[in-house]
Please model this.
Amino acid sequence: MSKRNGQLTMSERNLHAKAFDEGTQEKLNIYREYLREWLPVFLHAKMRVSRIQIFDFFAGPGVDVEGKAASPVIALEEIHTAVQMARKHGNNPPAIDLYLNEFSLKKYETLTGNIKSHSFVGDVNATFGRYDFPDAFNTWYPLMNRPDVANFLFLDQNGVKQVSTTIFKMITSLKYTDYMFYIASSIVNRFKTDPRIIEPLPITDQDLLRMNGTNVHGVIKDAYQRVAPKCYMAPFSIRKGANVYGLIFGAEHLLGLDKFLSICWKLDTVHGLANFDVENESIDPNAPSLFAEMDKPKKLDLFERDLSALIRAKKIKTNHQIYEFTLRSGFLPAHARKALKSMMDEAKIPKQKIPVSRECMKDAPVILKLDLRR
Model:
């Protein structure tokens, strides 16, 4: 640990001094996959905004020592692909602004050189900053807060303190804004008795009591969720050696959560939560056990029971409500459809067509039939 401006921070390690490890590469792959899903939404003719803005507050030099793309170059590549596709379909894309901040002078100089010389830089308006994070955020916040822009914020901090409760509230107040921030969750668990670590975060004493080395990232996500209960959020934990890090994702719209969870479930086909067995259930989808019930994750079983109970108690009455409950629970529409089929097969609800998908939200809600006598 070290201090900057009198505050406790992570040690000033040069995270770009060696090739990206597997965990870092996985984090960057999630970032790439989400941009690939997010950009076309606002390049489509029906969803017009005046500008698309991507803010990368801890940009680094742009590549690792082996030349592999880091977040700034990934953004350039995905913007180029999305713009080309939009033009191919006859759409005239709005302006796209890429804001890149890097405090280290050496990394900043490398970053600007890498971006300005990149063949895809012509697709964006690139703006560079060399600020401490709070200065970068406060300088660019008025740009994010304009009414006719779409924002994506990537906060790849080295530690835990930058996305404070105050900053988080400002982010979640923005319109058309999705965000993804990285957090060294293990640091919180290791130093949870140190007020200098805990103070910036919205966690409570109850959170600290139930926190352990495995669930820490989910606990932190839940704490942020309480600050913005209407926001759609999900975590993805990444283990590096003995430590757990991870991404916390948030969006203003359910579609964003659907897209993020789809990426997570491709990486973790059992729980959709992590690049390791976060629930300690030792379930291997490639080596099923003799008894199918032993391969059913407890999280999935709980989701199915809760969904069934809420439907039968008439607290969930439409397919739209099923869709939202499913995503907020960390599952995909496919999980809900399977659960509904089981309910019908077991005669808990009448057989009926209940569409649950991204597309169903474009139509009027379908009211569930619950009376088995009809």
